[in-house]
Amino acid sequence: MAARSCEMIAGLLASTEAVQFKDLQAVLGNASRATTFRYLKQVPYQRSYNHNGRYYTRNDPERYDRFGLFSCGDIHFSRDRTLTEAIKRLVEESVAGWTSRELQDLLHVRVQVLLLDAVRSAAVVREKLGGFYVYVHAERAVRELQLQRRRAQVLAGQSAPLEAGVDEEVIIAVLLTLLRHPQSEAAQVVRYLRGRSPPISMQQVAAVFARYDLDHIGKKGGGSTF
Questions:
Q1: CA distance 67 to 136
Q2: pLDDT at 208
Q3: CA 198, 186, 61 angle in degrees (round to 5)?
Q4: Measured between alpha carbons, how far is 159 from 112 in angstroms, rounded to an integer?
Q5: In which band, very low, low, confident or very high, does the pLDDT at 222 lie, cut at 50, 70 and 90?
Q6: Which of 14, 153, 57 is nearest to 96 (CA)?
Q7: CA-to-CA separations, 126 to 70, 84, 115, 176, 209, in angstroms, rounded
């Protein structure tokens, strides 16, 4: 067998989107866990934030979408390494905060417990607006701007809180995507629309789903009548 090297792991990660730790051990000639970790630390990699971190992928900045996320089927990765850090960053970068449902739809995992932990540790703040909780920045000045935008959006009569208004162009883009991919959930629609100019946010897509009651389509695999 050839001498072990970190290039063996780098080559494996470059050849496939996601691998398990046993695959890393195998490419090193069935190395021990300690030996495999020693070589793994020498290459840029990420662990999945779901499936108990069982999957590994190469850490390439070009792979992440505008939310800092990357998915391989039902395996999800974040540029932040941990789901806790990903949630904190998404809240801090948001124009108008996030609800638990919005984050769950985006990340494809349950987030309520982690959000409550973040509130308890003062990493983020939770505010109640019109019957729902919004998670916003811990710094008062930023938080007030986020809440101001969220209140304005709610008062404008939008069916779901938005980062920007949902005009006809956005609605058409979302509905056309659902015609092509009729079983898609909101987060998947956002990914299909990635690269569009101007960009369409998760909140905008969620608003279209709510306005036209589209949530059931992805769940039931229903038709594309809007």
A1: 16
A2: 79
A3: 60
A4: 22
A5: very low
A6: 153
A7: 27, 16, 9, 35, 24
Terminal-to-terminal C-alpha distance of the chain: 60
Amino acid, single-letter form, for residue 179: L
172 and 211 together in one domain: yes
Using the structure block, give the residue that is written with the tokens 């800092």. Answer: 68
Give dist(CA 2, CA 195) in Å, integer.
43
Which pLDDT score is estimated for 221?
A: 46
Structural tokens at position 220: 């039931």
DSSP letter, residue 117: H
Closest residue by Cα to residue 106 from 207, 182, 206: 206
**Dist CA 42 CA 104 (whole Å):** 33
Question: What is the three-class DSSP state of 160?
Answer: coil
Taking the C-alpha atoms of residue 10 and residue 39, their distance in angstroms, rounded to an integer, is 10
Q: What is the CATH number of the domain that holds 106?
A: 1.10.10
Domain count, the chain: 3
* Cα(88)–Cα(123) distance, integer angstroms: 7
Q: Distance between CA 95 and CA 143 in Å, rounded?
A: 10
Which H helix or E strand runs over 134?
strand 132-137
**Which of 42-46, 118-122, 132-136, 215-219 has the least mean pLDDT?**
215-219
Q: Do the domain assignments include residue 75?
A: no
Q: Is 54 within 8 Å of 20 (Cβ atoms)?
A: yes
